[in-house]
Write a structure and sequence with these properties.
42% of the residues lie in helices and 18% in strands. With 334 residues, it is α/β, with parallel strands linked by helices. The chain has a domain at 2-181 and 232-263 and 299-315: Rossmann fold (3-Layer(aba) Sandwich), CATH 3.40.50.720. The protein is built from eleven helices and 13 strands. The protein has a seven-stranded parallel β-sheet, with helices on both faces. Bound molecules: nicotinamide-adenine-dinucleotide (NAD) and uridine-5'-diphosphate. Uridine-5'-diphosphate binds next to helix 7 and strand 8. It comes from Polynucleobacter yangtzensis. Keywords: Carbohydrate metabolism, Isomerase, NAD. Homodimer.
Length: 334
């Protein structure tokens, strides 16, 4: 039984791969390296003391997919490959629909052709849009406010129809909140190829003195300290959630939509202060304007994950900050 992991050298997938390898699963990874580095393959082999195949290529390449499926007896696919910048999706929506929706359709076509029906999809909290109530539960209306979120919702709609069309499909759509942190080996972590847009990787570069200061995007929201609040989740908790989701689809076919979050929001200032406290580093800050399209606050209801997956996040905000920084230090010294 082999699991194909698309986008396998990216941030979240590489941590899921580490957890699965540590649980003795057989894996094959595919990535086109548009937002990751090939060295992550060796690092994963080193930290798990396991060897596994990596294919450099695109999930939209049907010929390559057929080859991977014929080279290995794949029984399940975890589909992480995707583009994830909201700002870029607003500038170039076709790129996002082609990669995120088109890529998923190509992959599903090959799976259907070859009779592989277990599928885990990296969806996102962005499918919900402006909160009508909080925490978002899985029945909250879905009205994404940007093409990135729309691309995730379109894939979810396709998966729903697919599951309804053939009872062999067993699909989990996991709606992630804000993944941060790094593997305890500190060999893998979040390493965007371009300038980071997200708070934690940007803050890492400020702490490493690669950037002079962090701009806080608005401190006049109606939140406890005026800054935006999000549901940050440790990437190792998220990785373990994927193992639970795999166990679920192996025994229960159909379509499962599940939030993966902690259920607790934290503000920008809380994240910065926690980071400073646990690392002893200081983060110079400037208060800037609100970022276009930002929601003041959102967080998950984690109840369904607890009921259906018997999973809940256990790591703290301090764990997330410390592991992110230890990975950054390790990376800077390598
Ligand atoms: P990432 O950019 O680190 O990983 C994505 C990986 O997919 C990269 O290694 C990239 O090179 C690869 N990739 C992209 N398009 C590809 C293609 N067409 N063919 C092959 N490989 C391709 O991002 P991540 O943060 O690890 O996110 C993984 C998934 O989770 C994405 O689908 C993303 O949309 C989703 N997600 C991420 C977040 C987040 O905040 N990080 C939140 C919700 C959902
Ligand atoms: N944020 C910030 N400065 C930055 C990046 C992000 O103040 O340089 C804030 C942002 O406004 C939001 C929170 O940090 O309130 C999380 O932003 P991120 O982009 O990481 O996640 P998302 O908004 O996509 O959930």
């Amino acid at each position: 039984m082999t699991i194909l992991i698309t986008g396998g050298l990216g941030f979240i997938a590489s941590h899921a791969a580490a957890s699965l390898l540590e649980s003795n699963q057989e894996l094959v990874l595919l990535d086109n390296l548009c937002n990751s580095q090939e060295s992550v393959h060796q690092k994963l082999e080193k930290l798990t003391d396991r060897k596994f195949p990596f294919y450099r290529g695109d999930v939209r390449d049907k010929k390559l997919l057929r080859k991977i499926f014929s080279d290995h007896s794949i029984t399940a696919v975890m589909h992480f490959a995707g583009l994830k910048s909201v700002a870029e999706s607003v500038k170039d929506p076709l790129l996002y629909f082609d990669n995120n929706v088109g890529g998923t359709i190509t992959l599903l076509e090959v799976m259907q052709e070859l009779g592989v029906y277990q599928f885990i999809f990296s969806s996102s909290a962005t499918v919900y849009g402006v909160p009508e109530y909080l925490p978002y539960d899985e029945s909250h209306p879905t009205k994404p406010i940007n093409p990135y979120g729309q691309s995730k919702l379109q894939v979810e709609a396709i998966l729903k129809d697919l599951a309804a069309s053939d009872s062999r499909w067993a699909i989990a759509c996991l709606r992630y909140f804000n993944p941060v942190g790094a593997h305890p080996s500190h060999l893998i972590g979040e390493l965007p190829n371009d300038q980071p847009n997200n708070l934690m990787p940007f803050m890492m570069q400020v702490a490493a003195k690669q950037r002079p200061f962090l701009t806080v995007f608005g401190n006049d929201y109606e939140t406890a300290d005026g800054t935006g609040e999000r549901d940050y989740i440790h990437v190792m908790d998220l990785a373990e959630g994927h193992e639970k989701a795999l166990a679920l689809i192996q025994k229960t076919p159909g379509m499962h939509i599940i939030n993966l979050g902690t259920g607790k929001p934290h503000s920008v200032l809380e994240l910065v202060r926690t980071f400073e406290k646990v690392t002893g580093e200081s983060i110079p800050m400037q208060i800037g304007k609100r970022r276009d399209g930002d929601l003041p606050v959102y967080y998950a209801s984690a109840d369904k994950a607890k009921d259906v997956l018997q999973w809940q996040a256990t790591r703290t905000l301090a764990d997330m900050c410390l592991s992110s920084w230890q990975f950054q230090l390790q990376h800077l010294s390598s």
